[in-house]
Design a protein that fits this description.
With 107 residues, the chain is an all-beta fold. It has no helices and 8 strands. The chain has one domain: Immunoglobulin-like, CATH 2.60.40. Helix content is 0%, strand content 49%. Strands 2, 3, 5, 6 and 7 form a 5-stranded antiparallel sheet that branches. It has a 3-stranded mixed sheet with strand order 4-1-8, with no helix packed on it. The radius of gyration is 18 Å and the shape is elongated. 19% of the residues are buried.
């Protein structure tokens, strides 16, 4: 028996999550500053809240996030000049979404 108490290997299957990518539409702010998305559950959960970060590619106005599960999410856009904006909630099915459009507008 090993020091960890197991005498055989354990197989662990990790779920990579569903695909989440698409484009960004922004009104009211400059889009030449570096920016990031933080995607979190649309409804706060008790305990641990998972989410994902994604850097925005302004040349293509696109993003790709990894590690999300099927469910309802909300994205926040943060730019390096201190501007932050929230998107409307969006739902990912078990098939994911690679044509998602996230719209942001400065208030």
């Amino acid at each position: 028996m090993s020091a960890g108490g197991l005498d055989h290997p354990i197989d662990v299957a990790l779920d990579p999550g569903v695909r989440c990518s698409g484009r960004i539409e922004v009104e009211g702010v400059s889009t030449d500053e570096p920016a990031w998305l933080w995607i979190s559950p649309a409804e706060p959960a008790r305990g641990f809240e998972s989410g994902a970060q994604a850097q925005v590619d302004w040349s293509r106005k696109s993003f790709e996030a990894r590690g999300l599960t099927a469910g309802t999410w909300r994205a926040a856009l943060y730019s390096s000049n201190g501007v932050s904006m929230m998107s409307q909630p969006f739902t990912l099915t078990s098939q994911g979404d690679t044509n998602l459009v996230l719209r942001f507008k400065e208030h």
